[in-house]
Design a protein that fits this description.
single chain; 187 residues; mainly alpha; 4 helices; rod-shaped
Length: 187
């Protein structure tokens, strides 16, 4: 084998290596570019999905508040016992919204939602407590001297229950404002 042939073979090997390196380099660049672009797209749509889920949750909480506000609305200044029974039994048909772990609300939104859920829990507890006390009042074996104080206590609890309605109305406006934010972002 002469020097010219060896040099031709060496050039072909080096040329083939350069072509192979160019192909490998192109594939590597393509893979890296694909990974980066897919990551950016995934993050964008995860953010959009999170905003949609947040909006759905806020809407669920708002529906809960609307139902709760409707139930606790009272037009009778005497606040009859039937009102308490109505509230108590209506609450059995209302489910409390569930906040899943993938829902990330702002601090302000979290405070509003927690306030509403707390009011909902207080309405449940109050209606149950009042109903139990009304049941005690109707018992024949309950001491007469205690019935007067129990009656005053029931009336105070009824007023407290009605006042929860006003708090719900205030919270409703705040929730509607939060919901508007998500409606605008999702479009």
């Amino acid at each position: 084998m002469d020097i010219a042939t060896a040099s031709n073979i060496a050039e072909r090997i080096i040329g083939n290596q350069k072509e192979i390196l160019n192909v490998i380099w192109s594939v590597l660049i393509g893979v890296i570019t694909g990974i980066i672009s897919s990551e950016l797209v995934t993050r964008k749509y995860r953010y959009k999905d999170r905003e949609i889920e947040n909006g759905r949750f806020i809407r669920d909480v708002l529906e809960y508040v609307n139902k709760l506000e409707e139930i606790t609305r009272n037009t009778d200044p005497m606040i009859p016992d039937s009102y308490v029974y109505k509230v108590y039994h209506a609450l059995e048909n209302i489910g409390t919204p569930i906040k899943y772990k993938w829902i990330y609300l702002s601090l302000k939104e979290n405070c509003i939602v927690n306030e509403v859920l707390k009011i909902g829990q207080e309405v449940r507890e109050l209606s149950f407590e009042i109903q139990m006390k009304i049941g005690c009042m109707s018992r024949d074996d309950y001491p007469e001297e205690g019935k007067k104080q129990l009656g005053i206590n029931i009336d105070n609890k009824k007023l407290e229950l009605v006042s929860k309605n006003l708090k719900l109305i205030g919270s409703k406006a705040k929730l509607e404002k939060c919901l508007r934010k998500y409606i605008h972002e999702s479009t």
